[in-house]
């Protein structure tokens, strides 16, 4: 298995995984919109994507977004998306992707990584085993714009 920092040229390999990730979170499959969304993220340099490959086959990906903390005066990354093809789960792919994100953040001298996940996501065990800590100090709120 190889983990690589993806670029726009890897888009066609990432899109099917990204679409499957969205379906895992109860969204309708939409390859065209997934492609357009990721293409815009790469072109605007909004994201950092790591791609896991077995040979030439894409088996997982992780997408990070950079943000900033005014309190600490540092940048940090939001680990927004992590997905491993179901037939490759429990083989260390998720752990390898997470370790790539940790290394990348260290190289960027970033404060760290933040993530949120569904309450029933079994990957929580992996996160906690790898040193991630559940936030018990702060509440997280979200305002939804209902103008769709």
From TrEMBL:
User: Domain N-acetyltransferase, which positions?
Assistant: 1-148
Question: What PROSITE patterns does the record point to?
Answer: GNAT
Q: Which UniProt keywords apply?
A: Acyltransferase, Transferase
Q: Does the keyword Acyltransferase apply?
A: yes
Q: Which SUPFAM superfamilies match?
A: Acyl-CoA N-acyltransferases (Nat)
Q: Which GO terms describe its molecular function?
A: acyltransferase activity, transferring groups other than amino-acyl groups
What domain of life does the UniProt record list for this protein's source?
Bacteria
Q: Which InterPro entries match?
A: Acyl_CoA_acyltransferase, Bact_Acetyltransf, GNAT_dom
Q: Which CDD domains match?
A: NAT_SF (cd04301)
Q: Which Gene3D superfamilies does the record associate with it?
A: 3.40.630.30
Keyword Phosphoprotein part of the UniProt annotation: no
Q: What is this protein called?
A: GNAT family N-acetyltransferase
């Amino acid at each position: 298995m190889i983990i690589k920092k993806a670029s726009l040229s890897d888009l066609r390999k990432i899109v099917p995984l990204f679409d499957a990730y969205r379906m895992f979170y109860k969204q309708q499959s939409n390859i065209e919109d997934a492609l357009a969304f990721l293409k815009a993220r790469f072109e605007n340099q909004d994201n950092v994507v790591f791609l896991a490959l077995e040979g030439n086959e894409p088996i997982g990906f992780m997408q990070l977004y950079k943000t900033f903390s005014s309190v600490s005066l540092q940048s940090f990354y939001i680990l927004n998306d992590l997905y491993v093809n179901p037939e490759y789960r429990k083989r260390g792919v998720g752990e390898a992707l997470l370790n790539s994100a940790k290394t990348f953040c260290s190289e960027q001298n970033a404060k760290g990584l933040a993530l949120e996940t569904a309450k029933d996501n079994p990957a929580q065990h992996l996160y906690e085993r790898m040193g991630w800590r559940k936030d018990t100090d702060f509440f997280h709120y979200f305002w939804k714009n209902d103008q769709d």
